[in-house]
Design goal:
The chain has 396 residues and is of the alpha/beta class. It is built from ten helices and 23 strands. Strands 1, 2, 3, 4, 5, 6 and 21 form a seven-stranded mixed beta sheet that branches. A five-stranded parallel beta sheet has the order 8-17-11-12-13, covered by helices on one side. It binds flavin-adenine dinucleotide.
Length: 396
């Protein structure tokens, strides 16, 4: 690739980058997707047991796109013959889509910074600069594991670094029943110490998924969460457990799975001693973990690389109604960080509805025919009325 060859650079080959590229493929636009690793790398790093929460169902023929589809003409349910694909399976789907649509993806290109100049953008990459007139930032939300300010977090293992819960379970050498120790404290008296094979810090989707995977592998698990997400119900699937996870958790607990859920437990630190690890909470509770504690503590978004090119309204980047940065003309955002009116487009079935909007805007600015994108409207994969979502019913 020479360094001023692109009209549009799309950064990231996850569902947002590949989906936007497929929409652009319909237009006479010179673009490339720049991907630091491989197509679908976020999904490749999921533990083997983890599956998409949103179900795939082959309903395209009835005008209802498969919830996990990123194009108007594909269905992961049909392609993969399953309802809740694993990360590996979903990657297969993304690769098949990229292959079928001959999407131009440059893998092994890490975009380290993006700067605006009078001619467009210069993307500094590990392989040298790349110039582009327009940039679509589609680098995802799950790039940089966060340990939420926990002291001694390096003793734990972030869920992003776990390949399989069955394998992780072997780090607690042999299963032990959960219980309570009384240990001598500094000064007088003794404090209670909960003992389990694995302590999981964080009780949202990935923490509960970890607990279920570890319990299935026969390990006792204590989940510590400052809110206790599992207790709440809401129409916003980003604030509470998804119906699928909730159902799995309830079934496991009814079956006597060795999972202890502790709410109102904000973890302050992790220490290591000769018997394993001790997780302490801000109110002084102690949980002993025989294997390294699992950190299900979330991620820093990849917007960190380009955040000075966006204005922020609280946690959300400010965007025009065409998903362009209000701060930097020519820089667009695709994926789960897109938000309008405080509503975040955080699942594939939501953010995919903006691929054609961004592609159309780029096509118009580049002076090419955008009528091929009408197919997205006909197949109802465009969301343009940003007033459509009632916060109470569609928060995320
Ligand atoms: C536990 C869990 C369960 C989930 N379940 C669901 C679900 O059921 N349904 C759903 O819709 N969503 C689900 N999600 C969310 C889903 O994973 C994200 O919405 C989706 O991955 C976002 O797609 P994306 O293309 O924006 O980002 P990603 O899939 O993260 O892709 C971003 C790509 O950009 C690349 N990249 C990053 N930085 C750079 C850079 N500087 N230079 C070059 N390349 C870069 C990365 O390597 C990666 O390939 C889940 C997430 C988690 C963690």
């Amino acid at each position: 690739m020479n360094d001023d060859s692109l009209e549009v650079a799309i950064v990231g080959a996850g569902p947002a980058g590949v989906g936007t590229a497929v929409a652009l493929e319909r237009l006479d636009v010179d673009y490339a997707v720049l991907e630091r690793d491989r197509i679908g790398s976020s999904f490749r790093s999921w533990p083997d047991e983890m599956r998409l929460l949103t179900p795939s169902f082959p309903a395209n023929a009835f005008g209802v796109r498969d919830l996990n589809a990123i194009t108007i003409d594909t269905s992961p349910a049909l392609a993969l013959d399953c309802e809740h694909p694993t990360g590996e399976q979903y990657t297969e789907y993304l690769e098949a889509v990229a292959d079928f649509h001959e999407v131009s993806v440059e893998t092994g290109v890490d975009v380290e910074s993006v700067a605006r100049d009078e001619n467009g953008f210069v993307l500094e990459t590990d392989g040298g600069p790349i110039r582009a007139r327009y940039v679509v930032w589609a680098a995802g939300q799950y790039q940089y594991p966060s340990s939420d300010g926990i002291e001694g977090a390096t003793h734990g293992v972030h869920v992003a670094n776990v390949d399989s819960w069955t394998e992780y379970a072997t780090r607690a050498p042999s299963p032990e029943s959960a219980g309570t120790n009384r240990i001598a404290a500094d000064g007088a008296g003794a404090v209670a110490e909960t003992v389990s094979d694995v302590a999981v810090v964080g009780g949202a989707e990935s923490g509960i998924d970890a607990a279920l995977g570890l319990a299935e592998a026969g390990r006792t698990v204590t989940v510590l969460d400052d809110e206790g997400t599992w207790q709440f119900r809401s129409p916003d699937p980003s604030e509470v457990l998804s119906p699928r996870t909730n159902e799995r958790l309830e079934a496991a607990l009814e079956d006597g799975a060795p999972i202890e859920l502790v709410a109102d437990a904000r973890v302050a630190g992790i220490e290591r001693d000769e018997d394993g690890y001790v997780v302490t909470t801000t109110d002084g509770a102690r949980v002993r973990s025989r294997a390294p504690p699992v950190l299900a503590t979330g991620f820093e978004g990849s917007l960190a690389v380009v955040d000075e090119l966006f204005a922020f309204d609280g946690e959300f980047p400010e965007l025009t109604d065409r998903d362009e940065s209000t701060e930097t003309r020519g820089l667009f955002l695709a994926g789960p960080q897109v938000a309008h009116n405080g509503q975040q487009f955080c699942f594939i079935y939501k953010f995919r509805q903006r691929f054609a909007v961004v592609a159309e805007e780029l096509g118009e600015r580049l002076g090419v025919d955008t009528t091929p994108l009408e197919a997205y409207r006909e197949k109802r994969m465009v969301l343009e009325d940003l007033e459509c979502c009632e916060p109470d019913y569609c928060d995320c």
